[in-house]
Each structure stands twice: as C-alpha cells, then as structure tokens.
Protein: 2-keto-4-pentenoate hydratase
Organism: Neisseria dentiae
Amino acid sequence: MKLATLKQGGRDGRLAVVSRDLSRYALPEIFTLQEALDDWDQAQGRLKALYDELNADGGKGEPFDPGQCHSPLPRAYQWADGSAYLNHVELVRKARHSEVPASFYHDPLMYQGGSDSFIGPRDEIFAQPEWGIDFEAEVAVVSGDLKQGATPEEAAQAIRLVMLVNDVSLRGLIPDELAKGFGFFQSKPASAFSPVAVTPDELGDAWRDSKVHLPLRVTLNGNLFGYPNAGQDMTFNFGQLLAHITKTRDAEAGTIVGSGTVSNKQNDLYGSSVEHGGVGYCCLAEVRMYETIESGKPQTPFMDHGDVVEVEMLDANGNNIFGTIINRVNTQYYSEFK
Amino acid sequence: MKLATLKQGGRDGRLAVVSRDLSRYALPEIFTLQEALDDWDQAQGRLKALYDELNADGGKGEPFDPGQCHSPLPRAYQWADGSAYLNHVELVRKARHSEVPASFYHDPLMYQGGSDSFIGPRDEIFAQPEWGIDFEAEVAVVSGDLKQGATPEEAAQAIRLVMLVNDVSLRGLIPDELAKGFGFFQSKPASAFSPVAVTPDELGDAWRDSKVHLPLRVTLNGNLFGYPNAGQDMTFNFGQLLAHITKTRDAEAGTIVGSGTVSNKQNDLYGSSVEHGGVGYCCLAEVRMYETIESGKPQTPFMDHGDVVEVEMLDANGNNIFGTIINRVNTQYYSEFK
C-alpha cells in the first residue's frame, strides 16, 4: 500500500491512497495519516481495499502529482534520526585522526530531531550559504505504538511504513553546536520526506531483517552523485533503532526513525565516486571527508543558491517506489526572514 | 484563562476550562488543546467566555481533580528544553574544574526533547535506580506559529500558555550519551507537565520580560527542597529561547519550550539549602554539585522506589496557579518492561 499527504485541508493535509505505479490517487474516508496511524488496525483494511481498487482499475482516481504533496506526516510527534551506517562515522573520525569508540558498534547513535514542521518533498530549503548547506539521503520508517522496554523484534513488528528522507544539515553550524554538548539543534533544520510512504510488503524481498536492500539514488544538479545499497553496511536495523528509543520511555504511533546517511564501505576518493565506478555518496560531507583524508582539506563545496538535490529509490524493475524528493536551495529569499 | 486536559477520549485527551481557583471545570466545544492552538485566534475568545462564566458562577462546572489530568498536551509536535539559568551550568562546570565558555552567555543551550508521549502530572516515573533518577523543575511556555527568522520580540508575542514541567533526567545515562556527541536521548525520558496551563495574563505583574517572577516550589518526600525565583538569574527569556529555534526553521503552534532547571545564584552548600535559609534546588544534581565542589564527591542520593517529587508555584496570595505535579518513582514495576 502506498500513501501520500496532499497539501489540502489543514495543517496535517489530506491523506491520499496512491496507485502502485504512482500515476493516480484516491481520497479515503480517513482524513490524515496520523489518524490512520492512531488506529492502524481499523484503518489499514479500509485503505488497502481502496489501494487494491486503484491498482485493479486504471480508470479510477485522479492523476497523482508529487508536486502537490506534503511530507507524508507534515508534522509528527517524533522524529529520531539514527546514524546506523558506521562507514560514515568511520570516515568522519578518520578525517580528524580519531578512533571510532568501540561502543559505537553496539550502541546506536541517535539524535532527537525537530518534527513540528517538516518541509514537503518538493519544497525549497531556505538557508544562508555560510551555514554549509548539505543533504543527507536516508531511509526512514514510521512505527506504531511501542511500550518502554520493547525489544528489537517487537519494534520490527510495529513498523507500519517506509519512506525516504532528506535530512537537511547545516555543516557550518555543527561544530559550535556539538561543542556545547547538547547535540544538534539549529544545525538540523526541517527535513523533507518522500512524496509517498509505503507499507513494508510493497518492498517484497527487498525488505529483510528490518532493512531495505535496494540502492538509494542521489542526484545533484542532474548528475548521479550516489547509489549505495541501503541494505549493506547498516550496523543497526530499524528494529534496533526503534528499541533504542524505548529503553527509557514509550514511543507513540507515528514515531519516525531515520537510518542516518546511507553509506557503503569503499576504498579511496577516486574509487568511491560514481564516475570512477564507485557507488558515490549520500551527502556532500562524505566526499569532503575522503578529500580531507587524502589531501588534507575538502574540495567539494556545500550547496548554494539554486542547487538541487534529488533522492529516490527504484525497485528491481526500475520503477520509482516512493516518488522523488526534489529540494532546491534558496539563499536569496532567506534574506526576507532576517 | 486556565486550561487542562482530562484523561478522556482519545490520545489527546479532552480539553477542559478550569476555574481560576482550580476548584471546577467545564468542557468547551473545542475538543483538544492542540486544536485550540492550531486556530488560537478563533478559539481563545470562546474559551475565555466559558472561563469567565466559571469564575462568575460558583455553581457552574464539575469538581476539578488534577489526578484525572494528562499533561496539557499529552503529546506535542515539539518540546525544546533550554538551560537558561546559567548558575546551574556554572556549578556543573565548577564541580568538574572547567570554565563556562563565554558563548554560553549569549547563545542559549537547548536540546530537542521527545514529545510523542509525555507522562501526566500525577503519573509514576518508571525507571531503574542505577540510571540515576533525578527531577528538574522548570517553567515552560507553549507558542503559536513562528516563521523562520522570528525575533525574540516576535516570539514573545506568540507565547500562548505557561506551564510547569518536571523534566525527568537519568543522570547515570548522561555521561556516556553526551560523550557520543549527539546530545541527550535515553537520558531524557518522558517529562510531566503541570495539571493546568495558563495564559500569561493570569500571572499579572509576575509575567514581565517573558519571564515568570515567582518562586518555583519543589518538595521531595514531603520536605521543601527548593523555592528559587524563576524570574531571577534567567539569562535568556522565553522570547529569546523561542527565537533560538527559529534561526534555521519555522516553529509550529503547540511548540513547548522549557526554561531549564530553575537555579538562583547562592553562596555555598550550607547557605544554599532551604533549612539554612537558602532557596534550595530544583534538581538533585545541583545539591550534588555543591557537595562535589566542597567535599570532592556527592552525598545526596538520586531518587529510588517510592520517592515523590512535587512541583508547584504559588501566587503572591499563596494560591496554587498551575496545580501541583506529583511524580512517584516506581523501579519495581520497571522490571515488567524488561
């Protein structure tokens, strides 16, 4: 089943059921995605029936336009972002000549993100260029209710939906913020999620061990920048990431957990880039770390006005699963905010 | 105007208008507090009319029982907690023989807290004793919509409600978590808010410069433990704390911002305690820091099974403004979670 939220109605938008091929949508009786998640046992059958109708009858529904979409949850009660691809962390540490603590391999890194006001999958990123504007292409899941102490296995069973996310990151603000000791805040502005969220069964064999075993495709200004496999080198699966939340508290239906920047282990700067046969990168910071490791300083600039990042995932037959996130950076309009 | 949320209806409870003296309540047409905040311009007049009726007619309404209350927002889209009383930070640093960075006096400390599932003002805290269970008594505000780049003055105008909060903290989990660099996560479980949230005008002259100029009273197992004035030594007011959020993104209606542990500048361990004429402390960590500074190590234990913390604020006439938070620690039931 594929679900989207249209920019209609109130702050939470209007839930839409989208055909498997992303060509058409129909409006269910349930108004918002959060309402469906709040009572999933009741909701899923009714949504699935409409989804099956849409797929069976090519004449049913209205044309689906990802440009009319909010993030599936325009605002959420929880957005917790992990950093499960330790290759990314290893590169960060190597670039600054420090070791990865042993605990990082059994205790997930996770930060609490702002979830009150996401941007949409086709919205602009408003920021100042001196903030070091970067993207982070990730996979994310939406869970049902989990009680304090839930195990990774219980948490895996509670995964309701899978999405993609561009976790916009302001690299220039991170060092001062982390030095304060309280974690990310201003350096992690509003994230953008894929036009469509899908139930895990839509992924077929690609959904195994609470991971998505498909390449995540990142395009920067029209050029393929990365396509690492999200199922590889993921040290903690989504069940484990969700269970990290529930060690000390409940997690309520609609909790979104991110995988962290997808990153596959590769060799060197030359061999890791797409043009030289590597799988590339899911954020600018990663290629800048390779550059720092090999030449002492980064070369690739962060994003500037007009730069466009796209994030999507294709199935084994080349079909777009989630729709494409397309975020353009706007640093000029930003001045109106000041 | 005073508002509460009863443990009735769905996940968001049932909004109630409470009489000024906290004796009675009536149910407005608007069902939940988030609905009221989403459309505050429309809602506030209708809620205020009911509030005025309740106060004018002592026979109107039902008996109000804080034990039937959720936190005013049982789940929220944002809970961002500042650390605006720098005396607390200065003591932390002094206890570990380090300096407070100069930037801390002009750039607020703030972490993103989990907001999907708060506990109620009279609910138990489920935790393991070895986690170092502590309370943090704070003031918090709920804001309306703020655009990216909002100034402290604009943010101050958008403050809709004031509450108290017990920001439960697990001190034993903090060092390892902060060492990972991503900030608090498991060490900050679900917070509890006061039974009642009030509009700033209810505070009269005590609401000045976006601060609450009244003592915050903390009682531990029936003994007064602290009553520092929340209007004193607050380096950043609530307008400034809200504006910290909006530097890089919007903040949506219903955003909750906390002050951090209220802490007044005092002299030494002896003079700071309530029994020796000081104003005491709003968390156990603070007296433990005085102990560490003076004797090399902390003496006061953290909370254990059955310990009860109460947080409240009285007006100039001794009337309870927000109702009392009463949280008991339960470490035995915790084992059922494991």
